[in-house]
Design brief:
Length: about 170
């Protein structure tokens, strides 16, 4: 978070179908402000009405870091680009939110998590609708739901100590 304000400065990388949802959500909260968007296919004319005054529209993440100095970036690009963009963001000193799927492989995810840990930065995977009916039928969503509960309520987290080791370890990553 920048020193002069408590509002989180957010950069958006990738403004396709999902990126537009991020823009609209950001406009609805006073806690965060879009300071720039980066997308080689972005049309400044189309985006300008959706952006706060002063936000930059650039073609690459490198330009975003140089011109907008975000605290956090949202990576909302195709999955094969997530790892490289996340490592670039971490190298630029930004916390990172990555749209699902986090990375295409577990090895790539480990590289991103290790890089963030080394810099003392946070990374987060964006998974929506975890608590809606179709997701609740998926056993693979259990770890993510548990991690979400744990981050919201540490007392509840202690009560989840009975969970199997494999699930617990996945939740803690
Ligand atoms: N569309 C959905 O309903 C949906 C829902 C949940 C999550 N997601 C996730 O969101 C991410 C994006 O999906 P989408 O549907 O918005 O894709 P999209 O193809 O509509 O948009 C992706 C955008 O990223 C841009 N881009 C590509 N490489 C870039 C780079 N190196 N730097 C900057 N911008 C770059 C493209 O120009 C494009 O505008 C994916 O990880 C996807 O799984 C999508």
């Amino acid at each position: 978070m920048s020193a002069e304000t408590s509002v989180v400065r957010v950069g958006l990388i990738g403004v396709g179908k999902m990126g537009l949802h991020h823009l609209k959500a950001m406009a609805a909260t006073p806690l965060a402000r879009i300071v720039g968007v980066a997308d080689p296919a972005a049309s400044e004319d189309d985006l300008r009405p959706l952006l706060p005054a002063g936000a930059v529209v650039v073609k690459s993440a490198a330009e975003l870091y140089a011109q907008a100095k975000p605290d956090v970036v949202h990576i909302v690009t195709p999955p094969h680009t997530h790892e490289a963009l996340a490592l670039e963001a971490i190298a630029a000193g930004c916390h990172v939110y990555i749209e699902k799927p986090f990375t295409p492989t577990a090895a790539a995810a480990a590289r991103v998590l290790d890089a963030a840990r080394a810099r003392g930065l946070k990374v987060c995977a964006g998974h929506q609708v975890l608590f809606e009916a179709p997701a609740s039928k998926s056993p693979s969503s259990t770890a993510l739901k548990t991690r979400s509960w744990r981050s919201r309520n540490s007392r509840l987290a202690r009560s989840l100590a009975w969970m199997p080791a494999a699930t617990s370890s996945a939740c803690d990553r």
